[in-house]
Amino acid sequence: MNKLELLRTFQRVTELSSFTQAADSLGLPRSTVSEQVRDLERLVDARLLHRTTRRVRPTQDGQMLYERARELLAQMDELENLFRQDAHALSGRLRVDMPTAIARRLVAPRLDEFLARHPALEIELGCSDRRVDPLREGFDCVLRVGVNEDDSLVARPLGHLSMVNCASPAYLATHGMPEQLDDLAGHSLIHYVTAFGARSDGFEFQRDGKLHSLVMAGRVTVNNIDAYEGACLGGLGIIQAPLVGMRVHLREGRLLRLLDDWVAAPMPVNLVHPHGCHLPRRVRAFMNWLEQLLAEELDAA
């Protein structure tokens, strides 16, 4: 019985929350994956997964084993590469997550450059606007925009994203171009929240080194950056967004800048990973590549 093989299978089932998807990922029959997980449960004498018709999730013991197994398997991958003829070759699978807009506009179009350097690597690229849990969800590293307040994560600061206020020409033709903060009383803000029911931050701006917020009316609230951008392009109101995502719209005239003297604070960008986790060379290589790639778009940290 190959114990490492059992652990790798259990790791994939836990990360994908599915026996079928894990089997497809590993190139194995589903029955083999199920049997290997049962073998591992017999080996450690504990139930590792809750199985339902809709979802598979780890038990408390399973989560503990997953966290330890993930570290062990990463170290084994390092050992396997240590004495290979090409000491610099990287192999294995990377699992990373980042905001949708950054993935779509900056990373995905250039990802072939990284993969061309490391042909034995595979990457799972997660794109979401929610804050994922790197450890519990099995991500090797996460690109996070905003202040990192989680002490369980190691953060590598990459820089800041400058912010810009935007609206569509059609919206401004109807409501007028605001010149002062007082003019916003007659305008609509497209509200962005991480979860519906949360309170919108309103229109944010910096003055004398302090952050201020102005309550604004607005009939549309979104929780996704694509919807946020789309609502603005559709003339539904004003948004405050990172300049990097709006630059092409501004250049081509689909959006117009406004109130440049009253912009929100730059948003910090960090690469984060769990404390105490061994970082395989492939993860370090990707983090270094991503830092270099984003240096062109970020203000200095």
What do you see in this structure?
Belongs to the LysR transcriptional regulatory family. It comes from Ectopseudomonas khazarica. Keywords: DNA-binding, Transcription, Transcription regulation. A five-stranded mixed beta sheet has the order 4-3-5-14-6. The N and C termini lie far apart (50 Å). The longest helix is centred in the first third of the chain and has 23 residues, at 60-82. The protein is 38% helix and 23% strand. With 301 residues, the chain is of the alpha/beta class.
Strand and helix map with partners:
Layout: H1 3-16, H2 19-26, H3 30-44, E1 49-51, E2 56-58, H4 60-82, E3 91-98, H5 100-107, H6 111-117, E4 120-127, E5 141-145, E6 153-161, E7 163-167, H7 169-175, E8 191-192, E9 203-207, E10 210-214, E11 221-222, H8 225-233, E12 239-242, H9 243-251, E13 256-257, E14 267-274, H10 281-294
Parallel strand pairs: 3-4, 3-5, 8-11
Antiparallel strand pairs: 1-2, 5-14, 6-14, 7-12, 7-13, 9-10
